[in-house]
Fold each of these.
Amino acid sequence: MRLTNRILDLAIYLMVVPIMALGVYVMIDSVLVSKSSIVDGQLVKMVEERSAEAFEKLEEDSEYVIAWLKIEGTRINYPLVQGEDNSWFLNRNYKGEFATAGSLFLDYRNSARFNDVFSVIYGHRMGNGEMFSDIHYFSDEAFLRSHPKGYLKMRDRTIELKLISYAEIMAND
């Protein structure tokens, strides 16, 4: 009987410890993913005030930043980058550092001056309220009608966007 109890205790221990370790890993990973997508609050404020210093700071931090994207009625308020292809920024922040959350990025085939007929911007729809998490609001026609604008702030100008369409695509598509 005593041997049976010890074997049962050992079996339970061998199941519980890996489950607890996995739980700790998931919590740490979640914090790191969120942290990797956070933009300095002071920088956000500087951009909103149209400060030239903000774009100087962005240019110091990253050669990839082409604009700042803000969409009315959402928490979408991030640097916008462009790479040489559409995969580089899937898992890199605006500075080019590894970040699971990735960045908001302009299709590499679009002009960084935004003079194409239309521009395609990609980003992850994060579950923690970051990046394009609020983009699903635009599936509601009433929301789209009441929040049709966004802004691309650049060093030398601000472009007002008219939001006409969005698409949610599964990560493996």
Amino acid sequence: MKVEHVAMYVNDLEKTRDFFVNYFNAVANEGYHNKTTDFQSYFLSFEDGARIEIMYHPDMQDMEKSIRRTGLIHIAISVGSKEKVNELTERFRNDGYEVLSGPRNTGDGYYESCIVDFENNQIEITI
């Protein structure tokens, strides 16, 4: 078995698409728009086959996203090396994103950093 994809509602569909394309080399599909319900989405595909579906609907709830809450808390993206974790973390920092932690070795064996994207979603960058 494998996780086929993870989905997340976002306020700015195009900006989120561009974020993952720009920083993580995702490839976006042409998008989907149901004109009856006004639901819109993109599938973002990554080099290894992983996919994220980003979605927008005008009636969605936009609740506060605290870092420590129940439910899904972050997306971890492997970039392949310690050097790439360091470089990407510095790029995020230079672009004005909040770096929550790292780059660092964690007690459970990861080398990672965590940033907060423009919609307050936590993204973990790891080897």
